[in-house]
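S.,

As promised, the zinc ion run. Input:
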Amino acid sequence: MMSGESIYKWYKPAVTSDSDIGVNAYWFIFCGNKMLVKVEKDKAVSIPFTKTAEELNILPVRKQYLGTLHDSPCFSVEVSSDTGICNGLLFQDLYTLYEVLAEDIFLLAGKAIQIVRWDQEHQYCSRCGSPTETMQNERAKICPKCGFFCFPRLSPAVITAVFKGDKILLAHNGNFQDNRYSLIAGFVEPGETLEECVQREIREEVGVEVKNIKYFGSQPWPFPNSLMIGFAAEYDKGEITADGVEITDAGWYDVNNLPQLPGKISIARQIIDWYINWRQYEQT
Ligand SMILES: [Zn+2]
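Predicted complex:
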């Protein structure tokens, strides 16, 4: 997470291992979007740490080596939906495990679920349809027939806090399940810079022009395969007009009159919290 520690403080990535046999390993085991976790008597939640996945009564459909976490090997595993599980273990939606799991485990789980999906979705070459082979020296698959390579797919998306004086632009997206207001976001299109994407998304969704775009920070967002790239920008011109398709309502908000905000897991909220701290500091 952007506000926390770097994942590389604890984690050393690798694609193949020569020393993972016979020692305990961290198992990131997924069934769809759900990850296998262990709930202790004191309600602490962790992931399995055993020598093999089979010890957990789990039969992996596919397995990938991820590298080491605190010098112990880690694997991502996909299991079929009819898999049985031991007592004390259960599958939980990864999204709900934020601030439940230890930060290092949660961060690596975000990588693991993307590797699992990539592995599952690239069993065949997308160019000629032949079965692919997993490369031994990098995270890639190759088609032995036509030579096509495929790497884990990432979809970059920008998310921007727009400021007009001491107010921030917040918008409600029709797809939100609740009455939450957030920042304007959207996927980067082929052929545009991140700054052009920021301007286009804000123009399309709320009809406003922005200037002085500044990078804020980024966050892997594995729900699914996104990389969120956060910006702050200054209002330039135009009246807010919600597009009525994605955005159903938008407005300028003061720190003393904020609507329901997104959860703390998101970079949107981290940028908004930065705004809140800045305004509260100015007002004291
Ligand atoms: Zn091919």
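The first helix runs from residue 103 to 121. The domain at 7-121 is CATH 3.90.79 (Nucleoside Triphosphate Pyrophosphohydrolase).

- D.
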